[in-house]
Structure formats: structure tokens, C-alpha cells
């Protein structure tokens, strides 16, 4: 029997890029695919445009970066709520760096989150900034990757100049 603290997730993936001859050649197919999961909208995916992908679709690298950003935000909102910091706004423009290897593979070397957090009162700003470390420690996705995830937060309040 699984532990009450064990969570299992399922996604479905369907490749939609067969142009008629499958993968008979590197340029003979599209990288398009659909990602779905029970109860959520279909996500249209492809590879990065650098790898013959469709720039109008999500690629795995963007999805990984988005997952890190989302997880940090959700963990951060939690630690703020239980820590007495009232967050009234949150945005992030995350960046990630991936390096290709000579064999055609590659790996991320780092991700940097740039959260801009608005708090209800200027007196909360210092604690709000410090809570990013706790959020990072609690983030399931950041705890699962083998590259550094850094944070460059900005904290504002309604009366900040």
C-alpha cells in the first residue's frame, strides 16, 4: 500500500508530426505533439526551434523552466501565508541556460528565478525576501533537478517609490 505522502502523476503524450513517411529522415517529420492529463486542457508541444521545432508551441526546456517558476511561487505563497507575510502580487521572469554536448545531448547548467513580490506593508519586506530560501527548500521541482536554481527576488509594497 502506498504511503499517504506518496503522490503519483500521469500524463499522456501523442506525437502528431508524422508527415506520411515517419522518421525516414531527420527533416521528414515534425516535432509536434500533444501533452494531456486527466481533467486539464491539452498542451501543444514541439522541440525548441533550434532543433527544427515550432516556435508557437511549448518545448520541454520551457516547460521545465515554467515548472521551476510555478513550484517556487506556490511554495513561496505558502511560506508567506504561514509566516505572516501578506503577498498582494507576484510575477516572475525565469531564465535558464542549457548547454549542448558534442554527442547531441545536453543539460541545464542553471536556472534563475526573478520573482517580483508585492507585500501589503513595507514592514514585511525584509522577511518576504528571506522567505525565498524556505520556498526553495520546499519546492518539489527544484529539489528534483541536478543543476542550481538561483533566486534574484525583488520585494515591493504599494507605497514604494
Q: What descriptive keywords fit this protein?
A:
161 residues; alpha/beta; 2 helices; 9 strands
Distance between the termini: 56 Å
- How do the SSEs run, as a string of H and E? EEEHEEEEHEE
Query: Which sequence of strands runs across the widest sheet?
Result: 1-2-3
Q: Give me the Rg, rounded.
A: 20 Å
Task: Walk me through the structure.
The strands form three sheets. Strands 1-2-3 form a three-stranded antiparallel β-sheet, with no helix packed on it. It has a three-stranded mixed β-sheet with strand order 4-7-9, covered by helices on one side. A three-stranded mixed β-sheet has the order 5-6-8, covered by helices on one side. The chain has 161 residues and is of the alpha/beta class. Helix 1 packs across helix 2 (125-138). The termini are far apart. The protein has helices spanning 60-83, 125-138; strands spanning 12-15, 33-36, 43-45, 87-92, 95-100, 106-113, 115-119, 149-151, 154-156. Helix content is 24%, strand content 26%. The mean pLDDT is 92. Strand 5 and strand 6 form a beta hairpin. The protein has two helices and nine strands, in the order βββαββββαββ.
List the helices and strands and how they pair.
Blueprint: E1 12-15, E2 33-36, E3 43-45, H1 60-83, E4 87-92, E5 95-100, E6 106-113, E7 115-119, H2 125-138, E8 149-151, E9 154-156
Parallel strand pairs: 6-8, 7-9
Antiparallel strand pairs: 1-2, 2-3, 4-7, 5-6
Amino acid at each position: 500500500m502506498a504511503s499517504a505522502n506518496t503522490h503519483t502523476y500521469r500524463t499522456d503524450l501523442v506525437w502528431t508530426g508524422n508527415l506520411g513517411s515517419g522518421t525516414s529522415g531527420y527533416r521528414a517529420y515534425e516535432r509536434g505533439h500533444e501533452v494531456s492529463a486527466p481533467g486539464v486542457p491539452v498542451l501543444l508541444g514541439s522541440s525548441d526551434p533550434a532543433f527544427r521545432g515550432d516556435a508557437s508551441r511549448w518545448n520541454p526546456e520551457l516547460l521545465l523552466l515554467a515548472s521551476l517558476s510555478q513550484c517556487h511561487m506556490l511554495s513561496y505563497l505558502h511560506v508567506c501565508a504561514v509566516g505572516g507575510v501578506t503577498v498582494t502580487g507576484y510575477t516572475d521572469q525565469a531564465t535558464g541556460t542549457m548547454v549542448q554536448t558534442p554527442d547531441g545531448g545536453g543539460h541545464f547548467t542553471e536556472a534563475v528565478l526573478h520573482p517580483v513580490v508585492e507585500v501589503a506593508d513595507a514592514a514585511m519586506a525584509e522577511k518576504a525576501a528571506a522567505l525565498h530560501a524556505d520556498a526553495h527548500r520546499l519546492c518539489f521541482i527544484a529539489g528534483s533537478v541536478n543543476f542550481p536554481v538561483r533566486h534574484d527576488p525583488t520585494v515591493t509594497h504599494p507605497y514604494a517609490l
